[in-house]
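Priority: medium. Attachment 1 of 2:
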């Protein structure tokens, strides 16, 4: 049972920086932020877990069953991630492509210290053995004097590509051959950008977050490995007996000109190709949820609705379902994993073709970061628009993709990838 203490936030200026500076000395931390976006299913503005009392670290088979046992044993808050490559446990698949980051397949930890921020209130949810630290930590977060920190000068990373434009377009043509043969209707095809360079993870996350302000952003640190995530997409959320999935398919650029910006959003909403992509994935998610939903409970609450973020307009659908009260939360994830927006339709065929045509292992990219509550509720994002970093190697990576359908034009898909890569590249070049 956690000791809970609430306080008023004295100053919200640079709140994320205050929290991450305070958490920096610990080798394990995970911060989730909505960046002020209103969300009927959200429960907080910021959630931060620091220090691991216990953890589960899996790089083998049986990840979902082991996670289920661990959650039942701990019966507490858990924060962490699942990689895309857990697909190999759900289906008879493998991941043989190059992996420059080597994240574990799954990692969750039971935080010693948990901080939740709702509006102007900060809640400290500490395990009893360190509850005496609450007052001291409050002072350290908000009232410690600014120390002069020696900032290491990092050289601007030289970003390399796994595909040049011609190679990328050749692979998309192969994907289109599969579509025209009827092997698949749609698949998400991705390419990696990388640099063998050092970066400042905290500074980079704050910059990326400032230019994106995404509703499912996350900063995750386990030892030398980091995820700096500015995701706009929710994978799956559980609230009591209700499941909520909100896949994104359809992207358009923003404009500083208000009239042109509205025009771009309107054109996205009416674009037959983008709508077709979104509807296919909506149908896939409906099918995934129906595997464990109560009969007749799967509903499409929003179809192809355009939401606007700082960098891009996105087309999002909302699909919900109801499950039995005693349903294992892990089974909800296993039956819908990986998320449809990052795979394709039919899902299994799309994943097989993706593995064949991509030339880098996705790992945490297109996986998920989020949390479980003690009562079994959870909320997980889709790891896109993210920088992934191993400080020991050093190696920094970002991957972007687009949905390939029969109407796809390879050169335009490449341009869409560059648009999605803009925020990460700008962060590395800052």
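Attachment 2 of 2:
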């Amino acid at each position: 049972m956690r000791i809970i203490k609430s306080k008023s936030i004295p100053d919200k200026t640079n709140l994320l920086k205050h929290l991450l500076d305070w958490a920096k000395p610990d080798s394990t931390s995970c911060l989730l932020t909505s960046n002020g976006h209103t969300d009927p299913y959200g429960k907080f503005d910021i959630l931060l877990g620091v220090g691991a009392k216990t953890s589960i670290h899996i790089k083998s088979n049986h990840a979902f069953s082991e996670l289920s046992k661990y959650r039942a044993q701990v019966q507490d808050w858990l924060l962490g991630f699942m990689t895309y490559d857990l697909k190999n446990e759900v289906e008879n698949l493998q991941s043989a492509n190059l992996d420059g980051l080597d994240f574990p397949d799954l990692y969750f930890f039971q935080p010693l210290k948990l901080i939740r921020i709702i509006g102007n209130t900060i809640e400290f949810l500490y395990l009893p053995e360190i509850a005496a630290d609450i007052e001291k930590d409050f002072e350290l977060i908000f009232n410690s004097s600014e120390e002069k920190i020696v900032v290491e000068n990092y050289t601007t990373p030289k970003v390399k590509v796994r595909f040049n434009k011609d190679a990328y377009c050749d692979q998309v043509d192969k994907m289109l051959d599969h579509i025209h043969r009827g092997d698949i209707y749609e698949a998400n095809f991705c390419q990696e950008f990388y640099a063998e360079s050092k970066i400042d993870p905290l500074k980079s996350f704050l910059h990326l977050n400032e230019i994106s302000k995404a509703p499912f952003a996350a900063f995750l640190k386990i030892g030398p490995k980091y995820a700096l995530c500015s995701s706009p997409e929710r994978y799956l959320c559980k609230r009591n007996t209700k499941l909520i999935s909100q896949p994104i398919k359809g992207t358009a650029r923003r404009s500083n000109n208000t009239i042109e910006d509205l025009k771009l959003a309107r054109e996205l909403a009416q674009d037959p190709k983008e709508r077709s992509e979104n509807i296919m994935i909506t149908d896939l998610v409906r099918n995934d949820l129906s595997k464990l939903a109560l009969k007749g409970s799967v509903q499409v609450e929003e179809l192809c609705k355009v939401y606007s973020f700082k960098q891009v307009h996105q087309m999002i659908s909302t699909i919900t379902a109801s499950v039995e009260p005693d349903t294992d939360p892990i089974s909800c994830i296993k039956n819908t994993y990986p998320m449809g927006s990052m795979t394709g339709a039919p899902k299994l065929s799309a994943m097989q073709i993706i593995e064949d045509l991509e030339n880098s292992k996705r790992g945490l990219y297109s996986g998920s970061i989020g949390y479980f509550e003690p009562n079994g509720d959870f909320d997980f994002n889709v790891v896109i628009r993210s920088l992934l970093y191993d400080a020991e190697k050093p190696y920094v990576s970002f991957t972007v993709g687009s949905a390939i359908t029969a109407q796809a034009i390879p050169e335009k898909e490449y341009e869409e990838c560059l648009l999605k890569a803009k925020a990460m590249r700008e962060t590395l070049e800052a």
